[in-house]
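Schema walk-through. Below, the input block comes first and the output block second. Nothing else is stored per chain. Lengths vary across the set, and this one has 229 residues.
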Amino acid sequence: MKCGSLPAKANVKKQREFYDRILRPLMEQAKSGNNALLFMDASHFVMGCDFLGYIYGKTRRFIKTFSGRKRYNVLAALNFVTKKMTTITNDTYITSVEICNLLREIAREYGGKPIHIILDNASYQKAMLVQELAAELGISLVYIPSYSPNLNLIERFWKFAKSKLRTKYYDNFELFQETINSIVDSADKHNKFSVEQLIGDKVQLFDDIDSNPVSKISFRRNIVTNKAA
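--- output ---
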């Protein structure tokens, strides 16, 4: 049996309502070419911290890690249809300023059609500065329900990107950055097939999970598609 996790404060009913009333219609419109639908999120890559590979065996092995904790931040918006990534990067912090810079990039890239961005409720993404600029640029910011990372499909890409990084040891921060950039830039190119398997019509919902799932031996994870009722 393989276990998964659901945020303790997640509201299953609100997730379903968000999917049925907002997300699924936007997906259908995007596939028809009537809008630009993007999923936005930031990922923080720490060199020497989270990128060791693993194998199963009886003998324990040790792998040398980098002595520092340099961090590379990637703020990105993933196009639901084309899988193209629009990014802002730095090695300091992601703030509302970076969000605004990304919104301007998106407006330049997708000007001429309605733009909808799915994003979470991080404070720097809900800042008045961000909301005012989005309104000025004609961008609709669509905030997912709290504690619902499963509804922001770019989260799946970050997991994919980190799995790629775990295949090698890095002791050079510039090489570390270049590798991450290459993975991100390839989302709509030579990695497009893999990304399409992760990001498409299927969205993970938890309609049938028990109110106390830990006490149950099993529960059914409900995967819905655009064909669902």
